[in-house]
């Protein structure tokens, strides 16, 4: 792929593979849940797909096991690049909502459900966790730091979860002076990435 601008950092954002809680429909937030067998297969498939990308120069990941394990499988395809852990790439902390079944949330806490499923950039602090504004500050700060350290590199890879920098599997050209609305990304499964 041709470089858009040498002052930009090209980033491929990858969501972690499926976890045991994903399969059950439980809300994870920052609970450290392992990948299940499907998630490991998904991570290997994405690693294989990404192995055709030229010159991935760095691999960043949340420190949560599901993201880190996904990142390690991908990094192994690039001459054993070391995965750099960054706590700021974690998913949104949703406090007491962590561990609840998503399908039960509308009845248990309609206000939290509305805030969680909204695209609005708000200060609603879900169940004692992070507001979307706090999440945005944390993730944007991390992305700006990473982009500044890799200006002109092509591409970077990050693994994250639903409410991290981007739950989708996307290619982003990031200039650290820009301010992207990461909270508008929607959740997609890993299959969406290699199907394109």
UniProtKB/TrEMBL annotation:
<dbReference type="InterPro" id="IPR029033">
    <property type="entry name" value="His_PPase_superfam"/>
</dbReference>
<feature type="active site" description="Proton donor/acceptor">
    <location>
        <position position="91"/>
    </location>
</feature>
<dbReference type="InterPro" id="IPR013078">
    <property type="entry name" value="His_Pase_superF_clade-1"/>
</dbReference>
<dbReference type="GO" id="GO:0016791">
    <property type="term" value="F:phosphatase activity"/>
</dbReference>
<feature type="binding site">
    <location>
        <position position="66"/>
    </location>
    <ligand>
        <name>substrate</name>
    </ligand>
</feature>
<comment type="similarity">
    <text>Belongs to the phosphoglycerate mutase family.</text>
</comment>
<dbReference type="InterPro" id="IPR050275">
    <property type="entry name" value="PGM_Phosphatase"/>
</dbReference>
<dbReference type="GO" id="GO:0005829">
    <property type="term" value="C:cytosol"/>
</dbReference>
<dbReference type="Pfam" id="PF00300">
    <property type="entry name" value="His_Phos_1"/>
</dbReference>
<feature type="binding site">
    <location>
        <begin position="15"/>
        <end position="22"/>
    </location>
    <ligand>
        <name>substrate</name>
    </ligand>
</feature>
<feature type="active site" description="Tele-phosphohistidine intermediate">
    <location>
        <position position="16"/>
    </location>
</feature>
<protein>
    <recommendedName>
        <fullName>Phosphoglycerate mutase</fullName>
    </recommendedName>
</protein>
